[in-house]
Amino acid sequence: MNTTLMFLISTLTMSLAAPALAQPPAPPAWPDGAGAWDAAQQALRDLQLAQIPPMPPMPPLPPRKQSPLGDRAQLLYDQGRDAIERGRYEQAVERFERLIEMKAKTTDAALYWKAYSLERLGDRVKALTTLGDLLKQFADSRWIKDAKALELELRQASGQTVSPAAQNNEELKLLALRGLMQNDPDQALPIIEKMLNGSDTPRVKEQALFVLSQSRAPRAREIIAGIAKGTTNPDLQLRAIRYLGILHASPELLVAYQGDPSIDVRKAIANTLFAQRDAATLVTLARAEKDPEMKRELVSKLSLMKNKEATDYLLELLK
After folding, report:
1. What is the Cα 111 distance to its own chain's centre?
2. Residue 248: closest CA among 226, 285, 281, 287
């Protein structure tokens, strides 16, 4: 038999027969040179690897946690509002109908904006039906006030009496409002406040709030702060929060945060304070926050801020 083959068989036999030895036996002198010895060692390693059992499969990854509104629901809502802003009411109706079918937590808002879009398309019957669904299914919704105002206008438009505040006059009302604010702010402010808390359409209210945000009068800031506390529909509240951030109105944002249990509103206020680099107010909120999710949100924002107040608070958490 070939010398190399005999030596390989001998080496493999010794390895398998004595696996528990602390030290492997020294290899005997090899007559055919180092290359044959390397080949024998490789064969031995291949044999040992073949005896290793396969690794069990990895467990599946947990599903990705969605945002509070749900990524898809929020996208549909934003697309519907954008379609309204661009006058594409058919597209808006389609987006809000899909959102309503999803039964997301913004269903009440979707019902309102669907009715609003249907009214713009001239379909008053479907608009009233949609508003009826909103009033019946979400009696405690913050959209009820706006829904009742729109329902009143629709019923008046369908009968003999036409409201002087009809939606066709929106542009004229906004132009008059801007001019009055420039020429006589003291007279304009009470009118704007009444519009924000009255039966005007959401579009008029949003524009009125924008006009108000351009004023530096203390009373204007007070009115915006009142809206930020949730005295009207949620969309207008979020706009007021952003305007308070632009005005660097941290005390008012702090009060709005402490008075609203909604996690979405609190996150919006935290985002506004973060954008303004107001670490001191964020630290104040973080120290008092009891909700674990919101606490993580605040600490996460503070961890991104290169600020002494933020750093001191993070060190405080580590003690």
Report:
1. 21
2. 281
Does the domain at 71-153 match CATH 3.30.2390.10? Answer given as no
- Read off the DSSP letter of residue 123: -
* One-letter identity of residue 34: A
What backbone phi and psi angles, to 5 degrees, belong to 55? Answer: -70, 145
Q: Which two tokens stand for residue 210?
A: 């924008």
Residues comprising the chain, all counted: 319
Identify residue 274 by its one-letter amino acid code.
Answer: F
**Residue recorded with tokens 């009142």:** 226
Beta strands in 178-242 (DSSP E): none
pLDDT tens figures, 266-307: 999 999 999 989 999 999 999 999 999 999 999 999 999 888
What lies within 8 Å, CB to CB, of 38 at 6+ separation is none
Amino acid at 235: D
CA distance linking residue 225 with residue 251, whole number of Å: 10
pLDDT in tens, 10-31: 655 555 555 544 455 555 554 5
Q: How far apart are CA 279 and CA 284, in angstroms?
A: 9
Is the distance from CB of 181 to CB of 167 less than 8 angstroms?
no
The domains of the chain are located at 71-153, 173-276
| pLDDT tens readout for residues 249-264 | 999 999 999 888 888 8
CA distance 100 to 113: 11
Q: Give the C-alpha separation, 146 to 199, whole Å.
A: 6
The residues, any chain, with a CB within 8 Å of residue 300's CB and separated by 6 or more, are none
Angle at CA 265, nearest 5°, toward 261 and 268? 145
Residue 140 three-state SS: coil
